Amino acid sequence: MRGGRRLFPLLLLALLPGLCHGRESAPGAVTCGSVLKLLNTRHNVRLHSHEVKYGSGSGQQSVTGVEASDDANSYWRIRGKSDSSCQRGTPVKCGQAIRLTHVNTGKNLHTHHFPSPLSNNQEVSAFGDDGEGDDLDFWIVQCSGSYWEREDAVRFKHVGTEVFLSITGEQYGHPIRGQREVHGMPAANHHNYWKAMEGVFIKPSLDPAKHDEL
Question: What is the phi/psi pair of residue 110, to 5°?
Answer without folding.
Answer: -145, 150
